[in-house]
Amino acid sequence: QVQLVESGGGLVQPGGSLRLSCAASGIIFSIYTMGWYRQAPGKQRELVAAITSGGRTNYADSVKGRFTISRENAKNTVYLQMNSLKPEDTAVYYCNAENGSRKYWGQGTQVIVSS
Question: Which of 25, 82, 88, 90 fits a 20 to 30 Å CA distance from 59?
Answer without folding.
Answer: 25
